[in-house]
Amino acid sequence: AQSVAQPEDQVKVAEGNPLTVKCTYSVSGNPYLFWYVQYPNRGLQFLLKYITGDNLVKGSYGFEAEFNKSQTSFHLKKPSALVSDSALYFCAVRDIGSNAGNMLTFGGGTRLMVKP
Amino acid sequence: EPEVTQTPSHQVTQMGQEVILRCVPISNHLYFYWYRQILGQKVEFLVSFYNNEISEKSEIFDDQFSVERPDGSNFTLKIRSTKLEDSAMYFCASTGGAGANVLTFGAGSRLTVL
Questions:
Q1: Rounded mean pLDDT of chain B?
Q2: Rounded to whole angstroms, how far apart are CA atoms A38 and A109?
Q3: pLDDT tens, B48-96?
Q4: Fewest 10 Å CB contacts: which of A2, A23, A97, A105?
Q5: How far from the centroid of its chain's Cα atoms is residue A5's Cα?
């Protein structure tokens, strides 16, 4: 079974400071990993994904995430936060093992609040 | 940019009534999904659909739920007899392929069961 944990319900940072939103995962095979963002009353928007290769993945709006296999983590980062980054962030995983299905499993979400 | 569109945006219904939520996936996509998000909780997988049949479903997707692709464009989720606990935001998603392909989500349909 595949699962995702986002240990922080909420992250608060000041505008201009770096931000990190944490994510750890569990799969039986190898993972495909995704970050999505949800603004109020909107659907989930894709930010970035890790498939293979370089552990540091760059995505939309200046976000990046680092895949760490030994720690089974895929933390989302941004060097300088903007107030407009305030939203709900979801990490998701798909297990690419031979018996895995195609479904995406989401973490519980982390609310990012960026203060001016 | 292509979008997944969902209707209605909000539906209020009485417990025990049937509800149909509609989705128009991106036109060249092949895999379709329904997820739900109860207020304040995580996004939960309900069902995936490929080649005109269900490919996976979660334990949430019991006999009260069904999905259909009645024509070449629509993908519907039906709840036969709604319960209070079905109140949630329901998201449709589609993707062009399996594996690493990115799911594109609609804006969601909020279902309120009274």
A1: 92
A2: 9
A3: 999 899 998 999 999 999 999 988 789 999 999 999 999 999 999 999 8
A4: A97
A5: 10
Report CA-CA distances (Å) from A90 to A58, A86, B54, B73, B74.
16, 13, 25, 28, 27
User: How many structural domains comprise chain B?
Assistant: 1
CA B51/CA B70 separation, integer angstroms: 13
Contacts of B45 in chain A (CB under 8 A): 103-106
Question: Which one of B41, B56, B104 has the shortest CB-CB distance to A103?
Answer: B56
Per the structure, the complete domain to which residue B22 belongs is given by 5-96
**A–B: how many Cβ contacts below 8 A?**
58
Which CATH number do you get for residue B68? 2.60.40.10
> Using an 8 Å Cβ cutoff, are A33 and B98 in contact?
no
User: Does residue A100 sit at the B interface (CB-CB below 8 Å)?
Assistant: no
Does residue B114 sit within a domain? no
In a domain, B23, yes or no: yes
At B22, is the pLDDT very low, low, confident or very high (cuts 50, 70, 90)? very high
Mean pLDDT by runs of 10 across the 116 residues of chain A is 92 98 92 92 90 92 95 97 96 76 86 96
Domains of chain A: 3-115 (2.60.40.10)
Between B4, B45, B91, which is nearest A103 by CB?
B45
Q: CA-to-CA distance for B114 and B59, rounded, in angstroms?
A: 23
Whether B9 is in a domain gets the answer: yes
* Residue B113 resides in a domain: no
DSSP B86: G
